[in-house]
Structure formats: C-alpha cells, structure tokens
Write a structure and sequence with these properties.
By secondary structure, the chain is mostly helical. The protein has 2 domains: 1-32 and 154-226, Orthogonal Bundle (Endonuclease Iii, domain 2), CATH 1.10.1670; 41-150, Orthogonal Bundle (Endonuclease III, domain 1). The protein has 12 helices and no strands.
C-alpha cells in the first residue's frame, strides 16, 4: 500500500476539500491499514457477506472453519448443503440467514460468471454493482465492499463508522442517504482503488478506536478538526 499525500488526489470544485485534511490526519496518525484481510477475491467476498451485523473476530472464526474443512472455494462451497454451510459459518452470527445469502451469491456467481471471480471483475463497475444489488441480502455496503476489495473497482464504501465520523465533524448529516455520502467522496476524491481502500480502512480504524457509539475524544487524531 503506497503512502498517499492527499493534495494531488483530493479536489472539490477546484479547491482542497475538507476530506483531504481528514485523510491526511488519519493516515499520519494510524499509518497504512492493509485492509481487507483475505487471500483471494472469493474469500474477501464471502467475508463481506459474513461481516454483516457482527465484528471481524467472529468472521475470522467462520472463515477459519471454511478453510479447515477445505471448502473456501466457489465449487466446494457450492456443493455444501445449506445445513452444513450454516453450521460452518455459525461463529459469524445469524448463521442461517448468512448461509442463505452466501448461497444466493454463489448461485449468482455460477449463473453469470461460471463461478469465476475473475470473470466478474471484467464487468463494468456500474453493471456489476446493479447485479450485486439484485442478490437477496446484499445491500449497498456489502456490494461496494465486494467491488472495492474483491474486484478492485473504484467505489467508496460507506459504513456506520464513516457516517458517524463525518456527522460528528459537521461534514455531512448522519441521516443523509448512502448515495449522498458516496457521491461526496466520488466528487471530492479521484476514483482510485488504492486510495479508496486506504481511506475507508482508516475510517474503520478510527471508529473502532475513538469514534465509537460513545465517543472517546481524548487523543483522537481528528479532535479540533474544523
């Protein structure tokens, strides 16, 4: 992951945008995050589905179950019964629901791309995003996580951490739509996969460390941001 200075990458109506300052402050404080943890695009996509409504530690346990049983591949996972899949992903919580969502994703992957993530990655960003959003249980955040981290498409992922940080610093109201938050980043920052990857990961790190539901403002790198 390269170090991004920000100035040459962040513009808004011809001027430096406040998002540049946020990025610089976070990167200088935390350094590169090297996120998303996952060895293959398929593993990352499955992780994106499993991480819904749970923490990453639980997802890691579920992923490890799949690896230990030798089924963390499209074909092997596709052959599993619903009950066996649910049992293996149980540590991630809501395991029956998530097993069904994974199954829907697998059916989509085989129906449209022969089970090959590399074929999916060749699709135009807008087209594959629209298709992903048609899959049962996959909303904008999960779809964009798959696009950015698994398929290396330049889309910014909006999550609760991002909303919370921007709202608390007066950049955008929390209740604005997912699309409004995403458009802010897409209009202010050049569409670059590595930059979007790093920036989103920094929001996650900040949200877990300082900008929690009950904020821990002492020592926060964004304290005093105007």
């Amino acid at each position: 992951m390269g170090v991004w200075s920000g100035g040459e990458h962040v513009r808004y109506n011809g001027k430096m945008h406040q998002l540049e300052h946020v990025y610089r402050m976070l990167f200088c404080f935390f350094g590169p995050q090297r996120w998303w943890p996952g060895k293959t695009p398929f593993e990352i996509a499955i992780g994106a589905i499993l991480t819904q409504n749970t923490n990453w530690t639980n997802v890691e346990r579920a992923i490890e179950n799949l690896k230990r049983h030798g089924v963390l591949s499209p074909k092997a996972l596709y052959r599993l019964s619903g009950a066996n899949l649910a049992s293996l992903v149980r540590p991630a919580g809501y395991y029956r629901v998530k097993a069904r969502r994974i199954r829907c994703f697998l059916e989509f992957l085989f129906r449209h791309y022969g089970g090959r993530m590399e074929d999916m990655a060749r699709e135009e960003t807008d087209i594959i995003r629209e298709k992903l959003l048609e899959i049962h249980g996959i909303g904008p955040e999960t779809a964009d996580s798959i696009l950015l981290y698994a398929l290396e498409k330049p889309v910014f992922v909006i999550d609760a951490y991002t909303r919370r940080v921007l709202a608390r610093h007066g950049i955008m109201a929390y209740e604005r739509s997912y699309e409004a938050f995403q458009q802010l980043f897409h209009s202010a920052i050049v569409r670059d996969v590595r930059l979007y990857n790093e920036y989103h990961a920094l929001f996650v790190r900040l949200g877990k460390t300082f900008c929690r539901a009950r904020p821990q403002c002492d020592g926060c790198p964004l304290r005093g941001l105007h």
